[in-house]
Amino acid sequence: MRPRNKSGTYTFFSLAAVAGIALGVATLVVALSVLEGYEKVISEKLTNFDADIQVFAYGNQDVTDAASTVALLKGVAGAEIKRIDISAQKICILGKRRINEGVTLKGVDSLYLGSRQGLAILDGSFGLEPGPDSVMKVVIGKTLATKLRVKAGDMINFFAINAVDLNDMTALPAVENFQVAGIYQSGMGKYDDAFAYTSLGTIRKLYEMGDNINLIEIKLKDPAKVNSLRDEILPQLKHPLSAVTYVEANMQMFNWIELQRKPVPIVLGLIILVAAFNIISALLMLVLDKTNTIGTLKALGAAPGMITGIFLVRGMLLGVAGSLAGVVLGFILAWLQSEYSIVTLNPQVYFVDKVPISINPVYFVAVFAISVALSFLSSLIPAFAASRVDAVKALRFN
Q: Which residues contact 227 (CB under 8 A, 6 or more apart)?
């Protein structure tokens, strides 16, 4: 049942239906690819930068017996542990001339930074131990280095915030000097701006910690087991010690990602409405265009089911064409972004410098199947309308 070539109305509505479905499907698969890609990239960066599990004491207290705690952790989950690091982190101010920035200063051993796959050294080295001249060393992020306008080898000022005696506002802590040993880049602007590294001995000396620490970091052989291992470790820790996964430590970020997923059903609903409206409109125009033909078929003995089937097939063709075009368009857009990073982001705001993409075939197949199924359902209304056309009136219809 082909429409007459002289009638362009049906063709227009058909093209509109296919275009509407294609744009909707492409939008949805790209959005899902971006969300999954963003979550995957953030998770990878966090696990490269942070530990899978962090053990700490409530209230930022020091861990006074680190050796026994590490032994306990190895006894509970030693077979799953890839690496354990002890460290200490404190809030401080680093500055140069009149520019001062608040950062988290982290004291670690000499192998710590080199073991972090997500960290790249841009200038200098990861050497944290004081040299022969006893000058304290610090490694800072690219973003912080840009703000302070310093490079490797430059001297910067150090100010320990919690060294201030709040009961004596005239007593100011001594300002120490650090030499910038290196400048790193993690790929996450927030971290490059917020974290600086020195040796564990240096931070213990500056904050008079003795042999104490305040953080134990665990890297796992299989990060997928992070939740189950945290659940095994947590009951074994004595107060005030606790443990969190990298997801819990960055819950705000993952909540933000989850928030972006919530509009997906709304987008899907709008796609359904647009697709349904376009298909119904196109098929109703076809019914009007083919009323005489429908009457002829009925007069020749065609059953209502046959008429219904003809229009259902026509609706399905529109749905399949639009859905297939949308999937192909969505894949092309996702691939272009994945390969060429066409759309960039501000890493200070979004933690990454480009829109990440994860091309998951499951999303493409699922969206295609849902779109075709909805196209079929949308075709039922005009198909049943066509089957109920009165043969006598249809033959008189012009």
A: 245
**DSSP string computed for 78-101:** GGGEEEEEEEEEEEEEEEETTEEE
Is the CB of residue 95 less than 8 Å from the CB of residue 279? no
Residue 294 CA to residue 170 CA, distance in Å, equals 96
Asked if 88 and 107 touch (Cβ cutoff 8 Å), the reply is yes
Over the stretch 374-389, which tens digit does the pLDDT of each residue have?
A: 888 888 888 887 777 7
Strand 120-124 and strand 176-185: pairing?
Answer: antiparallel
Average of per-residue pLDDT across 213-224: 93
CA–CA separation, 372 and 218 (whole Å): 47
Domain boundaries of the chain, sorted by first residue: 7-46+253-396, 59-238
Q: Which amino acid is at 371?
A: S
Strand partners, 197: 106, 139
For residue 334, give Cα distances in angstroms to 24, 38, 179, 337. Answer: 15, 13, 44, 5
> What is the pLDDT, as a whole number, of residue 213?
94
Contact (Cβ atoms closer than 8 angstroms) between residue 103 and residue 93:
yes
